[in-house]
Design brief:
Helix content is 54%, strand content 0%. Helix 4 packs across helix 8.
């Protein structure tokens, strides 16, 4: 399935993380050029890795910009810093630091030296898909924090949600009605060409 088709077919629940006007405003106010963005919550090396991960999750294609280009890393960092409560911030920070340590061990490189290809191989090893076993969770089922796989899955989920709720994707890729009000009933393929509604 092509990436554009996959984005169109993502379910209604995928917009949950940034469904409020305040969070949409925060998302669309993230406008620092990716190369000069300085993280608010993460360290600079951790932010570099976040940009790399986001770029692997949703890279640029001939039809669509990458998540990095749409400032998704900046939004994720601000979302954690400004929306998460202190407990969730500590939980995420601990999980992300464990993930960064695993990445350094896995690649035998410092974070500043890690490249996109390294991240692809790391994700192939640690990002679990449905049915795959998270051995860290299996070894320690009572662990209160997130495992590396769970941390990466959380980041992927935030990336997709933020991406789908950016102004560019909402207005130019998804079905968009700037003045909603009418109730449409019918086949999605006939109504929107198979696209899900923007901001639904």
């Amino acid at each position: 399935m092509k990436r554009r088709d996959a984005i169109k077919r993502l379910g209604l629940a995928s917009g949950a993380v940034v469904a409020t006007p305040g969070l949409l405003g925060m998302l669309n106010s993230c406008s620092s050029p990716a190369e000069v963005w300085t993280p608010q919550f993460l360290t600079v090396p951790q932010g570099k890795i976040l940009k790399g991960l986001v770029d692997v999750f949703l890279p640029e294609t001939p039809e669509l910009p990458s998540a990095k280009t749409l400032n998704v890393p900046e939004f994720i960092d601000r979302y954690i810093a400004e929306v998460y409560d202190e407990k969730d911030q500590k939980r995420f920070k601990a999980a992300y630091e464990i993930t960064m340590a695993e990445l350094k061990t896995f690649t035998k490189k410092e974070l500043e030296e890690v490249e996109k290809e390294d991240l692809k191989v790391f994700l192939d090893e640690y990002l679990k898909v449905k049915g795959e076993v998270d051995t860290d969770r299996e070894k320690n089922p009572d662990f209160d924090g997130m495992t590396t796989s769970e941390c990466l899955d959380s980041l992927k989920w935030m990336t997709v949600n933020a991406y789908l709720n950016t102004q560019k994707i909402g207005e130019e890729v998804l079905a968009y009605d700037p003045v909603p009000g009418a109730y449409y009933c019918g086949d999605l393929d006939e109504l929107t060409g198979g696209k899900r509604w923007s901001l639904s």
